[in-house]
Amino acid sequence: MKWQTGNYTRRFAIFFEDRRTPIEVRFAFEKRLTILLVLEQLQEESLKESLTYAADYASSYEGLHGRIELSFLALGTYRFCFDAARARDQKGFLPPLPGSKFAEVGVLDEPKFHEDVERLFSIWVDGLAVVDAVEPMTPEARKIFLRQSRNAVEDDTRLRELQRDHTGVAAAQQAVLDDLKAGKYFVSASHEGVVRVQMEGSQLVRTEDGEAPSVERYATREEILRYLRNRFDWEACRDTIPHRPPELEIWKFIRSQLE
User: Fold this and answer.
1) What's this model's pTM, rounded to 2 decimal places?
2) Residues with Cβ < 8 Å from 52, sequence gap 6 or more?
3) How many CB atoms lie within 10 A of CB 188?
């Protein structure tokens, strides 16, 4: 069966005021949307007009997709847009996407599409200081706007480089191993029981007591590091989702959990 996209479409756009810098507003929206926004490649002349972060949105749960844009238009003023669409086949059925609540639903009408998009967009923009239009900037305000735009571009470059920089990771990993060998350990407790992770000789041993007692052993350095990294992945990143902290920061976090 051939799926056709774009049968139902709708564009939403609002202007809102926010005194935070573009990078701060971007991060706030990424947390709202749980999607990473990407800075569009701009020429120097483009920065005089706007700065735009964008992403492609797709939700198998709601059967919606489209393009999201967050633009810095003037000092303290932004625009948020969502060009929404819903896929359906020639009979009006949604593609049976994994996990979709519409996977076995019959014909979907256009009013239902508009209802779903309006509800989603209202969640995204809840609490924003919405304004009707962009006010003209004074010459001084335009100077600050241009400076903040350039700073946002530089911040974006710096953050991408930081994610790629693994300098110091090996040393941080070794510090965790050294602490474990010196007798430190990890411990966590829940209603299911207590989990303790510590070194026994040259092996890392995970012992779980409670409803389902178990013992796991990790013998090589690679196995030990892989286990620790996977074990703490969620805890190290949960406060920064959808961002991932630099790898060095994750290993510093892992070390901080030792007792």
Assistant:
1) 0.67
2) 39, 40, 42, 69, 70, 71, 72
3) 13
Each residue's pLDDT tens digit, 33-45: 888 898 886 655 5
Same domain, 140 and 12: yes
Same domain, 74 and 130: yes
Both 230 and 156 in one domain: the answer is no
The domain that holds 87 is classified in CATH as: 3.30.2030
SS3 145: helix
Q: Name the nearest CA neighbour of 91 among 188, 3, 215.
A: 3
Q: What are the C-alpha distances in Å from 226 to residues 204, 223, 230?
A: 11, 5, 6
Question: Amino acid identity of 98?
Answer: P
Same domain, 149 and 248: no
Distance of CA 46 to the CA centre of its chain: 27
- Domain count for the chain: 2
Q: In 3D, which of 175, 146, 117 has the Cα closest to residue 47?
A: 146
Using pLDDT thresholds of 50, 70 and 90, give the confidence band for residue 220. Answer: very high
| β partners of residue 68 | 55, 82
* Contact between 59 and 90 (Cβ < 8 Å): no
Q: Tell me which H or E stretch contains 143.
A: helix 139-164
Check if the beta carbon of residue 176 is closer than 8 Å to that of residue 197: no
| pLDDT tens-digit map of 95-123 | 544 444 444 444 456 777 788 888 889 99
Residue of higher predicted confidence among 203 and 241:
203
